[in-house]
Amino acid sequence: MAAFQILTRGLPARAEEWLLAQETPIANLPVLSEEDQQRARIRHLSDEQYARHLLLRQSARKRESEEGERIGKVILDLFEEWKAGFHLKGIVKRGFEPGWCALIELQAPGSGSKFFEIPLPTEDFSDERDRQVLNVANPEEIREYLRSKLGWGEYRAAAS
């Protein structure tokens, strides 16, 4: 279990996840419980459609969890290296916002705790061409982004 929380809301699926769910043979779809069958009827979906919906959600949830873990580990490793009082409390993804957000606590000597968040733009839903989008699979890119956002060079100089 991670030393931080991973919270997601909305779980938007990606096109490849949707295609995978649509192309999955019926025999490989999740078996629906009675409760699932009831939910399918309420939504006016066939059992097969609802099973594909569940498979899609499962795939998106797995991806989101893996991304959150990967980003959180990069942040934890960076904070351990710095030994500067930063503590990662959570990695949050809020529905259709463009990426993750790191919830951080800073325990500065003599001044108590300060909580803040840093947006981590790992997706872009806009048409802006110059917008920075972090590659979740590139830990060094995430580290450099955090260093710039946290003013690590300035922080180190002040602490020396």
Q: What order do the helices and strands come in, and which of them pair?
A:
Elements: E1 5-9, H1 15-23, H2 34-42, H3 47-82, E2 86-94, E3 100-108, E4 112-120, H4 139-150, H5 152-159
Parallel strand pairs: 1-2
Antiparallel strand pairs: 2-3, 3-4
Strand content: 15-25%
Any idea what the shape is?
elongated
Could you give the order of strands across the largest sheet? 1-2-3-4
Task: Return Rg in Å.
Answer: 20 Å
List how many beta strands DSSP finds: 4
Note poorly predicted spans: none
Count of runs of 4 or more consecutive helical residues: 5
Mean pLDDT: 86
- Oligomer type: single chain
Report the structural category: alpha+beta
Distance between the termini: 35 Å
Instruction: Write the element-wise H/E pattern from the N-terminal end onward.
Output: EHHHEEEHH
Domain unit count: 1
- DSSP helix fraction: 40-55%
Largest sheet: 4 strands, mixed
